[in-house]
């Protein structure tokens, strides 16, 4: 999913690694933990080797803008290639069980503005099914084992059930809005 996120950000504008890392945190927020430089730069090299991104040049080092523990040399600015734009669209259009998982769903959702309506609906509906299954799991645990759980585990299960209920309601609202807007448009 890091490929999708990086290509999506570079589709918006060229960036250097430090800025990409900052924008990933902004775009994905609570969805994804901070991306380490140890995973970012190898991914950038792999995307570059694949021909999906290229170096646009270097920006001069500005001592105030250089993050701690990095060199003072100019930073490489990356930009997406035409092949990278095609790859980004291909990744956006992928709909399957992996797109419904917690980390992948968040990344897909962050780029829904660039995703076709039918793909958005399939992802939202798949995610809803996934969360409904999770919700049923919480209900089963509470129904079968509530009396055997300690107070804290019981509260954790209740919290999970409430979170799943909220997410299902949110997804149903999004699906209804997508369908309504699709009929109007």
Features:
67% helix; mainly alpha; Arc Repressor Mutant, subunit A; 8 helices; 3 strands; globular; 185 residues
Which CATH C-level class of the largest domain is it?
Answer: Mainly Alpha
Helix proportion? 55-70%
Give the beta-strand count.
Answer: 3
CATH topology of the largest domain: Arc Repressor Mutant, subunit A
Segments where pLDDT lies below 50 for 5+ residues? 60-64
Describe the structure.
The chain is mainly α and 185 residues long. The protein has two domains: 96 residues, Winged helix-like DNA-binding domain superfamily/Winged helix DNA-binding domain (Arc Repressor Mutant, subunit A, Orthogonal Bundle); 69 residues. 67% of the residues lie in helices and 8% in strands. The protein has eight helices and three strands; from the N terminus they run H-E-H-H-E-E-H-H-H-H-H. A three-stranded antiparallel sheet has the order 1-3-2. Helix 1 packs across helix 4 and helix 7 packs antiparallel against helix 8. The longest helix is centred in the last third of the chain and has 34 residues. The protein is globular and about 65 Å long. The chain starts with a helix and ends with a helix. About 3% of the residues have low confidence.
């Amino acid at each position: 999913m890091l490929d999708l996120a990086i290509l999506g950000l570079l589709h918006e504008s060229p960036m250097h690694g430090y800025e990409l890392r900052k924008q990933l945190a902004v775009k994905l927020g609570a969805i994804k933990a901070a991306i380490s430089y140890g995973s970012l730069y190898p991914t950038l090299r792999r995307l570059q080797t694949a021909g999906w991104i290229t170096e646009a040049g270097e920006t001069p080092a500005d001592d105030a803008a250089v993050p701690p523990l990095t060199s003072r040399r100019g930073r490489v600015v990356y930009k997406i290639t035409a092949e990278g734009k095609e790859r980004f669209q291909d990744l956006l259009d992928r709909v399957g069980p992996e797109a419904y998982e917690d980390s992948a769903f968040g990344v897909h959702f962050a780029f829904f503005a660039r995703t076709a309506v039918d793909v958005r609906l399939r992802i939202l509906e798949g995610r809803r099914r996934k969360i409904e299954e999770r919700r049923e799991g919480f209900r089963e645990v509470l129904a079968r084992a509530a009396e055997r759980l300690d107070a804290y585990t019981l509260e954790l299960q209740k919290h999970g059930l409430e979170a799943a209920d909220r997410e299902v309601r949110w997804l149903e609202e999004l699906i209804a809005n997508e369908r309504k807007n699709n009929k109007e448009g």
